[in-house]
Design brief:
Length: 329
């Protein structure tokens, strides 16, 4: 579901092999990408998504645009999506289409000023900027690595410059609110925010917040006999609705009711560690916002470990401006 079945487009993947910062130069980095692609039977020419002292990673991709993962689900439709980090399906598969062993961990990308001496050094004193494998907003930023550690590479095909046609899967709609809800305002306030933002975007049907209480799991509020949920940009979250019980989402739920990326805080009120479990940490059933009361939060830019097992304080959730996932009934 959500795959592009026809057409020739660029592929993108995370290498299954790990490497130190001394790659023997940028040409050898590109060679690694091409060898990995050939080994997996992926067509085309590839470049490593790395900066050099004279080029940014994007500049090294030339005029290429639109990239599919090895499972042919789109990573980004176009070059503009790449630059703005409007990710459709997260970059977390290796060249064989397997889940990368490095998901959630940092990966070197570099900059024109920090690049392991143009990828010829493994000096332990060098620091290199990078991103996090499998995340969306921070897939290429936020991490700070070292030149001597072993990490995979991002590899991008560069043969095609045509954007990928958008995926449009039918189903019940889902989105992330742009507005925040204080955890002490009650679940009804979260439902009202969902309804208000859906109405403002002209979305049909009724929406509720995907949050737990001490007596109800998040999914208890919705029928699992209906169609699956899809983001408002047409990207499916699960193959079928019942998969939400025990499978991680196919894509991150970080687009708003209007189908565009929601920037800012990535924290989301959820109240449970699983969608089919009653809430154990719900800010006293959404009536408290103090530092002595715990809450479970989801992270909107993740699919793997998108609901961490650790808790946060309800005061911190309020300070962070935590948002809400909204699902159509």
């Amino acid at each position: 579901m959500g795959a592009i079945c026809e057409g020739e487009y660029n592929y993108v993947f995370v290498t299954s092999t790990f490497h130190i910062g001394d790659l023997g130069g940028i040409e050898n980095a590109d060679q690694i990408c091409n060898e990995r692609a050939r080994d997996a039977g992926l067509p085309g020419t590839y470049r490593a998504y790395l900066a050099t002292s004279t080029e940014s990673p994007e500049e090294r991709l030339g005029s290429s645009s639109g990239w599919l993962r090895p499972d042919r689900r789109p990573f980004v439709y176009s070059r503009d999506d790449l630059v703005s980090s409007l990710i459709r399906f997260p970059l977390l598969l290796d060249e064989h289409g397997r889940l990368s062993e490095h998901v959630g961990q940092g990966l070197r990308i570099g900059s024109t000023h920090q690049n392991c001496l143009d990828w010829t050094s493994a000096d332990t004193s060098h620091r290199v900027p990078g991103g996090y494998v499998g995340l969306t907003v921070r897939w290429n930023e936020g991490a700070l690595g070292q030149c001597h550690t072993e990490e995979p590479l991002y590899c991008f095909g560069i043969d095609h410059d045509a954007p990928i046609p958008p995926v449009s899967v039918g189903g019940r709609l889902a989105f992330l609110t742009r507005g925040a809800v204080s955890p002490d305002e009650g679940r009804d306030a979260a439902d009202r925010l969902c309804a208000d933002e859906a109405a403002a975007a002209g979305l049909p049907g009724s929406f509720k917040a995907l949050v737990a209480t001490s007596t109800e799991a998040p999914l208890d509020r919705f029928s699992l006999d209906g169609p699956t949920w899809v983001r408002t940009d047409g990207i499916p979250l699960w193959e079928k609705a019942e998969d939400a019980r025990n499978r991680v989402p196919l894509a991150t739920l970080n687009v708003g009711a209007d189908g565009s990326l929601v920037s800012g805080t990535r924290w989301v009120l959820i109240g449970s560690t699983a969608l089919d479990q009653r809430g154990e940490n719900t800010c006293n059933d959404w009536s408290a916002s103090t530092e002595d009361v715990p809450v479970n939060l989801a992270i909107a830019e993740r699919t793997i470990n998108w609901i961490p097992s650790n808790t946060y304080t309800c005061e911190r959730a309020k300070t962070w401006g935590a948002r809400v996932f909204c699902l159509q009934e």
